[in-house]
């Protein structure tokens, strides 16, 4: 199956079900964070800088 659901590294749930406090793993910003492939959250700036994709960009 090609489709892969990203899950939170902390609670092991998909982004929609994750109730963890969300902030960027790299810069600690709470704004615009999304779950990425490695199960960690990143803000839009860091995603762009590191070329990470969110679930719906895959
Ligand atoms: Zn979580
Ligand atoms: Zn960031």
Summary of the model, kept short:
This protein is low in regular secondary structure. The protein contains one helix and two strands. It has a two-stranded antiparallel sheet with strand order 1-2.
Attribute tags:
58 residues; two-stranded antiparallel sheet; 1 helix; binds zinc ion
Structure overview:
By secondary structure, the protein is low in regular secondary structure. The chain contains one helix and two strands. The chain has one domain. It has one helix at residues 44-50; strands at 34-35, 41-42. Strands 1-2 form a two-stranded antiparallel sheet. It is globular and about 25 Å long. One zinc ion (ZN) binds at residues 8, 10-11, 13, 18, 20. Residues 24, 26-27, 29, 42-43, 45-46 line the site of one zinc ion.
Which class do the helix and strand fractions yield? little secondary structure
**Overall form:** globular
Number of domain modules: 1
Average pLDDT taken over every residue: 92
- The largest beta-sheet arranges its strands as 1-2
Radius of gyration: 11 Å
Bound molecules: zinc ion
| Low-confidence parts | none
Number of helices: 1
